[in-house]
Amino acid sequence: MDAQQSPDLATPDIARLVQPDRVHKSVYADPAIFDLEMERIFGRAWVYVGHDSQVPNVGDYHQALIGREAVFMVRGPDGAVHVLFNRCPHKGARLVAFPAGNVGKFIRCPFHGWSFRCDGGLHAVPIRDGYQGTRFDINDADFSVRRLPRQAVYRGFVFASLAADGPDLESFLGGIRSSIDNFCDRAPAGEVAVEGGVFRVWQQSNWKIFFENLNDTSHPMVTHESAVNAARAEYRSLPPGTKMPFQLHIIEGNGEPYEFWDKLEMVAFDNGHSYMGAIFTPPTDPVSLAYIATLEAAHGAARAREILQVQRHNSIIYPSCSPHTSFQQLRVIRPIAVDRTLVEIYTFRLKGAPDSLFQRSVVYANVVNSPSSVVMPDDIEVYARCQEGLKTQGGDWVSQHRDAGRDRPIAGGFVGNGLSELPMRNQFRAWAQYMTQDA
Amino acid sequence: MDTARLHTVSAFLFHEARLLDQRRWHDWLDLFAEGGMYWAPLTHDQTDPINHVSLYYEDALLREVRARRLEEKRAWSQQPVTQAARIIGNIHLLADTEGDIVAVSTFHLLEWRRSGNRMLGGHYTHRLRPAAGGLRIVLKRIDLIDCEAAQETLETFL
Fold first, then answer.
1. Of A231, A237, A378, the CB nearest to B77
2. Which residue, A146, A329, A416, B45, is the most exposed by fewest CB within 10 angstroms?
């Protein structure tokens, strides 16, 4: 391929953009590739919509984006959650306006008052007489709010797909189901619920740069040096013998040396999913101990230990979200343009756990995931610098060489050492599969 | 309204704004009373900072970490640093509470860093405690008009 030109988007050329140990810069910087991703990745994959607990009552809705499609999920009187396009079939107006809310008994369009059931079906139109003898038919799906071709729920996590065909949700998730399972199993009642508000943060960079960073263990000690130094200096200023406060601990953890990260395990699955294992150290702080007591009361000590020993840093559910199970966070990644990404951060309550555990998750969210985080701005800065650098003629390829060729196959994926760039290579393995598949 | 008291509070708020505009973080930190909090809610009319996330909810420990980080040489997102200019107006004193003064005001905050100006704005609510050497901040609450919108990063103090 001519390095100076935007690649032709014929399938064989797309395939040449991804090599086993490097990818072409255009996958991050070319708007035409972004358009194709919207069609071939976000038009096909299961994309996260929201959590069941965000719409507890009949008529509750929550808006989401699937690729470029504005959708919302709404709770029907039958108890089911329906995922619908946010478009009135009459004149095209968006039906719901707030990020989340309640439609009442019916979804009513603010323009001409057509009203719909929560499954999207047309309920009533005003001045019905005018439609006599026309092709309008109240029972014709063309006059209902269109449903997403497919929707499915896994342990309360609602996904939808713009494609009518494809693997079912559980097959799509494959091995990464274990992260969702552990997220829920950590709740003494076996269920989680979104609570406490949602952060929305802009990134001036391509969505894939963030996904790669989520399992990138060689960046924290470099990117986050300022926050780590500040937290350590603050700790040194506290009276000697003080136990490191939680707030400092979660910042300072980014300063662990390479040897620490390399001992962790990277596990990557088909379809781009992966997780970064963490080391389980039995906690001694009062918040954790009170929580563990509730988990043991629910399941017994042996099962509780089994659940807690599944320690993971970020898991990646490609291409739409990333749970952090130990601190009950979920980051949802919405690509807006080739160089602009919206990230939503949700905090979950483990049902049956003490309030103090949820309140600690709120502290974690404030310190690590807020737009005012002292950790995140340096991430967002380096992502933007990548986006700017990739536009230049200073080189055509992005390296993913670290531990390339040393990934060990397992059922449904690969495993590697903690510093391996396996998760990035794994994401592009899925990316190439989606992108080289013609419509 | 006690004109002398309004004058004292206004002078305090203008001084505070100047310290922040000049990035004199440690002088600003000293304005807080012991146990004082700095809070920017995420939603309009938010009452609970404990069970709900906030744009900022910082005690002395977290404020100091932020100030220290802003002075780090390798704070990549402060290359260049955030430049800021604030205007505070519409200062109004509410009834005193337990000896504290509660002042509400409106602010415009113009910021520049690397790619154009950003305009932030909203309302401050200061709960101030008279102490030896002047007023001290018991609570500074910042209600951004767009607190519920998606945000670019907020790096310094509002």
1. A378
2. B45
